[in-house]
Amino acid sequence: MKFTAQQIADFLDGVVEGNQQEEVNNFSKIEEGKPGTLSFLANPKYQHYLYDTEASIVLVDKSFQPTKKVSVTLIRVEDTYKAFAKLLALYQEQMDGKNNKSGVDKFAFITSTATLGQNVYVGAASYIGENVKIGNNVKIYPQVFVGDNVVVGDNTILFPGTKIYHHCVIGNNCCLHAGVVIGADGFGFAPQDNKAFQKIPQIGNVVIEDGVEIGANTTVDRATIASTIIRRNVKLDNQIQIAHNVEIGENTVIAAKVGVSGSTKIGKNCMIAGQVGFAGHLKIGDHVIIGAQAGVTNDVKDNHIIQGSPAFNIKNFQRSNVVFKNLPELRREVTDLQKKVAELTKMFANEE
C-alpha cells in the first residue's frame, strides 16, 4: 500500500518540503535508502547521508537546517524519532491484522481446568497447566509453557519458548519474547557447618503489571516469599537477570546484560544502560540514570546520574577518567621527580 508525502505529513502533523505527491510503500535506513521508501534523520552524525540518499522521503525535525542542497522530499515534524516510531507502530498494526492468528493448534495441550478468553491463539507444542486463566486476545506461540495457577491478562503476547512457572501473574498488554523465563527459583542457599549449601525453598511468585515488555532470554526469578514485582510499562532488554524479591518501578527501562541481585528495589522512570551490575538489598531512587558497565554497590538517591565500578556521580567519574588516562605520563613524571630528589639528597649529604 502506497502513501503520499502529504498523507504521511497529515498523519504526523508535519509539513512537507518538496513533492507533496511523492509516494512510498516501505521504510529504509538513511544510509541505505532506496526509491519508494521513507527514512528519517534523528542523529546529527548521519546528516551527510541526507544529501546522497536515494530514499524518496525523509523525516526531519522542524528545527533542522541543512548545510547543502537537499533533493529528497522532507517532512518536518516536532520530534523525528517519535514520529518515525508512530509510523512503524501503524505499519506493524496493519501487518498484525493481516497475520492475525487465532484458535488452538491440535498439537497444543490445555488442561481441562484452564480457562481461555475470546480470540486466543495457542500454538503447537504449547502447554497450559491446571487452573490457568488466559485473557482475551492473548497470543501464545509454539513451545510456550504456562504452569499451574498462572494468570495471563488481555492482549498479552508470549513468543516461542517462553516459560512461565506456577502461580505467576502476567498483566494486560504485555509482550514476552522468545526464551523468557518467569518464576524460576531465586538463588537462595544457606551455608552449612560442613561447608555445603542447603537450598532455601522459593515459595513466592512473580507479578508483572500491565504494559511490560521483556526481551529474549531474560529471566525473572520468583521471590523467596511474597513477590518479585515488575511494575507497569517497564521495558527490559534481552539477556537480563532479575533476582528474587526485586522490585522495578514503573516506566523504568533496562538495557541488555544487566544483573539485579536479590531484594534490590529500583525506582520509577529510571534508565539503566547495558551490563550494569547491582549488589543485593539496595534502594535505587526515582529518575536515576546509570551508565554502562557500572557496578552499583550502594543506595542511590532520586535524580542522580552515576557511572563507574564502583559507581559514583557521573561528573566526578568523568574527571577521574581524565586522570586515569593520564596515569602513565603522571607515573613517569613522579618517577623522574623521585630520581631527582634522590640525586639532590645524595648531593647535599656529600656536601655535609
Describe this structure in words.
- The protein is of the alpha/beta class and 352 residues long.
- It has 3 domains: 3-98, 3-Layer(aba) Sandwich (Udp-n-acetylmuramoylalanyl-d-glutamate--2,6- Diaminopimelate Ligase, Chain: A, domain 1), CATH 3.40.1390.10; 103-315, 3 Solenoid (UDP N-Acetylglucosamine Acyltransferase, domain 1); 323-352.
- It is built from 5 helices and 40 strands.
- The strands form 6 sheets. A 12-stranded mixed sheet has the order 8-11-14-17-20-25-28-31-34-37-39-40. It has a 10-stranded parallel sheet with strand order 9-12-15-18-21-26-29-32-35-38, with no helix packed on it.
- Strand 5, helix 2 and strand 6 form a beta-alpha-beta unit.
- The longest helix has 25 residues, at 327-351.
- The mean pLDDT is 94.
Structural class: alpha/beta
Domains counted in the coordinates: how many? 3
Mean pLDDT: 94
For CATH, the homologous superfamily of the largest domain is named as: Hexapeptide repeat proteins
CATH topology title of the largest domain = UDP N-Acetylglucosamine Acyltransferase, domain 1
